[in-house]
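Obj.: predict assembly geometry.
Materials: sequence records (below).
Method: joint structure prediction, all chains together.
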Amino acid sequence: MKLSAQTKVLALLFSAGLFAGCSTTGENMDEEGYGSDVAAIDQDGGSTVYGGSDQDGISSSSMTEEERMEAQQQAEQEALRDITTFYFDFDTSEIKPEARDVLMAHARYLSNNPGQNVRLEGHGDERGSKEYNLALGERRANAVQRFLIVNGASRGQMETVSYGEEKPAVMGSSESAWAQNRRVELVFE
Amino acid sequence: MTGQEREFTSTGVPPWKSPVALSVALHLLIVGVALAGWSWSSSIQEPPPSSISARLITQQKPEPSPVVEPVEQPDREQEQKELEKQKQIEAQKRQQQKEEEARKAAEQKKREETERKAEEQKKVEERKAREAREAEAARQKAEAEAKERERRKAEAEAEKQRQQEAKRKAEEEKQRQEEQRKREEAERKQKEEQARQEAERKRLEAERRLQEQQLEAQAEQARKARADEARRQEQAAAAKARQTQMLSESEKYQALIRERLSQAWYPPSSATEDMTARLQITLLPTGELAGVKLVASSGNTAFDNSALGAVRSLSRYPVPSERDTFETYFRQFTIEFNPRRLR
Amino acid sequence: MIHEISFRPLKAMFAALVLMLVVVTSAQAELLIRVTEGADSAIPVSVVPFAENGSMPAGDKVSSIVQADLAMSGEFRPLPPEKMLSLPSKRSDVYFRDWRLLGQRYVLVGELTRNGDRVQARYELFDVNREERILGETAAAPASNMRSLAHHISDKVYESITGVPGAFSTKLAYVTLDRASGEPRYRLQVSDIDGKRARIRLESKEPILSPAWSPDGKKLAYVSFETGKPVIFVHEIGSGERSKVADFPGLNSAPAWSADGQSLLMTLSKDGNAEIYQMNLQSRKTTKLTNHWAIDTEAAWDSSGDGIFFTSDRSGGPQIYYMAKPGAEPRRITFGSRYNARPRPDASGNYVYYVHQRDRAFTIARTNLKNDEETVLTRTGSDESPSVSPNGRMLIYATKQSGESVLTVISADGGAAYSLPASEGDVRDPAWGPIVR
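Observations (raw structure tokens):
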């Protein structure tokens, strides 16, 4: 109830044109309306998320509360699924806690769309030995695969491949580059 | 909570025990009093306490009258008999007024009769009093017993209530203790989990520290080794210098030769610690090499060659100018090449 | 840069334990001087430019190549020709006193004669102090193959001075990555060990890695992603013929040849986890050699051909393990740090070389298998893929230089370093080929 009231107020603000930048309002909404989990989305696919919520607010008068919530949840899920890269610490294949919600959303999506296939590409940073990194990349991809299976996706929808340190996302030999290269990418086909 | 518990346990004697003792004691006392009443009733006549009799009346049947009745019956008969006798005496008086003796005798008799009667009256009274006392004692006893029953009943009631209370309390206590235990268990588990996590963290920490320490130790070791090496070389140089000063001419020149050879020797990469090449050297008094001969091969040609090369590379050997020393030691001598690994 | 961390070859081996001087003062016994320490530097050697009879092919001179080879080994210190007092080409012209004055220990002189499309070399090596010829030979090669002739002479010179066969005629295989044209180009190349005469053997848009030489030097096994996943190929270098030998689900990687060339060790994850298998190349049958939930990979046969070194993270992080025979209970070899991977044993059976992490830097280290002593050989920081020369005297590895991957050669005990020229982009994954007789 509270959420909807706020959303409505914000929707009114929207239509009143009291602001210029969509992203700014988006942030406001985000802070007020959503839990902190969703904040991460901000950085990646912000505009999509806020567009969806915006429409929610405006059409809420003609929708039931359930429909509205459902639509909002769906929008959230869709927004979560904008994230397709998951990062790992050095020499580990442990899925980070912040990746869980997003992977859950992917698993639900895969579960609801059995015809959808996905390729899990495991990578490592450039340090250490190439062949060990290749095996590590595979272990990371397998970890993500297991997580998706446990949460509803089926093995048949997935294919894993490891590139080891061969295909860095970011060039360079800095901590930041390494952190961005230790990853598993979901490639939907 | 615990205070209560302490109170309960510190009593020592169970609470039901003392009333029994009390009741037993009271019984004994009452029986004692009753007995005392029996034995001392002739001399001490104590009026029964009114409060006790009042209670008895309300609770027990009315006082038994038959006990008193038979005592009064013979009394009236006696009086009638007496009247009759008086009538007879009066008739006699009237009939035999003249007979003094008879009259005196009658008077005597009358007196005696009166005495007897008084005696009898007294006896009756005594019996009556005794009976009254007995009745009183019985009443008192019954009353005491009733009182005792009442008291016991009350006590039993109280005891029961108390026990129920104790039971309730015990249950409460038990429940409380159970809760406490559960809470403690939960706490303990949490603590254990924390401890385990802590231990795990510490273990990882320790491992990490150990690794770091190992790394540090290695770095330190390497640094120390270098420092040691530098110091050893310095010390060796210093020692050498001292030795050179102190040693005889011969020793001084031996040291010089060895040092020059060390600088000139390039052991091949195939060399190992167990390779030894022995060469015999012949010098001229000028220090020039007159001849060299391999007297013991290392088994490795490259190694032997490196030794020969080193010996031949010196254009002039340092030798003493004093002829005797030269002839004794340096005209001909042996050099052994044998690599020793550091550490 | 490398000098500070590990002892120079000569110093390491011959630093004196005790400066011992045995003096026998009695009149009858002869004086004995014991030398236990050698000179702490590379051997001074002069490679005199060869005389030439007839027209010679353009390009590097044979003597220059020999000189570069000897310098690259880290064991020799060649004298620049401009400092030479004379340029003799035969014994009668060699004045030993001059060379001795220049502090030289060995002098190589020679003469090349054009003979149709071939060139003949006659060369002699002299020990300056002993004033003796220690090597004299003639060798011939097609005029188009002057580098082979030069490397052959280097091998001979190296062997006569050190007693160890030279490895200058061997080949290197490595992978280059060229991103200049937009699309990445991975190229498997084979060159001389000085990086010259490089030839592309395979080009792909997808990664190529882990080239491994067959014992006869005629084939390469490697991992190629050309089909979208890691697959092992065996590639005949002469004919260019190649075959896919391992294309199982999951990983197909880290190929290593057996001494007889009949089988490959490889890492497969077809059973769910990276394990080491041996594949008979004739029957293509695989035998599983490890069975552990951890990663087991990067297998290599030891010098005897009995045991197998490999990387496993069964203790938490990657470490080097050794199986005395295929399938035997592995024994852990490395303990010095939390990351040790990609073992490469040398032919002598004395050392195993590997990637080693220390102080956040990835370096190349070796462990002496006789006494378990570990020595860090490099300090470049992001070093990987060590490959030891077949004579055990040199080591090549990949490292970073101003952001680009380059190959560096060092002497096996961590001495002199020599960076191979990188012609295009990144160079990685070097594999040192065998000595082919």
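Conclusions so far: The longest strand of chain A covers residues 158-164.
To do: check interface contacts against the pulldown list.
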